[in-house]
Amino acid sequence: MADRRPDDMTRITTKELADAFIEEQLEALRAQIGDKKVLLALSGGVDSSVVAALLIKAVGQQLTCVHVNHGLLRKGESEQVIEVFRDQMKANLIYVDASDRFLDKLAGVSDPETKRKIIGGEFIEVFAEEARKLDNIEFLAQGTIWPDILESEKGIKAHHNAGGLPEDMKFELVEPVKILFKDEVRVVGEALGLPSNMVYRQPFPGPGLGVRCPGAITRERLAAVRESDAILREEFAKNGLEGKVWQYFTVVPDFKSTGIKNGERSFEWAVIIRAVNTTDAMTAEVEDIPFDLMKHLVSRITNEVEGVNRVLYDFTPKPTGTIEFE
Ligand code: XMP
Fold this sequence. Notes:
This protein has 326 residues and is of the alpha/beta class.
């Protein structure tokens, strides 16, 4: 396959164009891989999911997917990866629940960059451990896309070839969507039959809910982030805001305030709702959420999420706030 996106390449915007791309890729993948084995870290994000779906079609059981649950995923995310790839697509999928391992390492760590480093480093370690258990793997598949390549060429973002794996683990790379823009990856994903909530999902940071649980992560506060996020996503979907708002989530900072619950004094956390629109994530505007929906969200979150007695809305555009809190 082409190493670079040809200047005159037609933007993939339709099912027909996606089908043609898929046919071409399946042939190229079979030619590259032959009867050898391929490994893929499958996060459930758009890019790795589309790569998985392409490889399952191209080489079936020669692909092994490893899904690492770092304990910082959203509610239902790992379950969906297992349902779609193992149950429906019959992929060879290894599920590793490494939640305890990550959360133990993160205990008491409050510096944002240190948290990110621990999560990134531990991820590579868990993935490498799984890879070492497998025999005869020659290829590593990655969901690299065209903007990743452009950004690494410009020195904006380090694009880690081979995912930062240890030096002794050498694989040939398989990158079937590397000449595509994000919107094209989504169209290809849809043509491959992936569920639309997977293909059109909002951006989600690699360190996951870890950056939405500011300061030192505790299991209790993390559970409050996960439950409130699930309520927000459910209500946005019900009220036609899914797919309209670029990114929306909840944050639970490490402070408590006084309230009243069931006629008694409570001293509990506050959930902050953030909902923003942007085109490139460099700047962002706050979404104008209908007031009735706001009130409904407050009621559901304070009633259903343990340890929470208050809900706040973040009105800050970027700048001055970043989209995430850490
Ligand atoms: P900020 O917070 O910098 O976020 O305004 C801009 C976009 O990037 C996402 N983001 C991350 N994505 N790893 C990621 O993969 C990270 O460490 C990370 N931090 C922020 C954020 O969700 C938003 O879409």
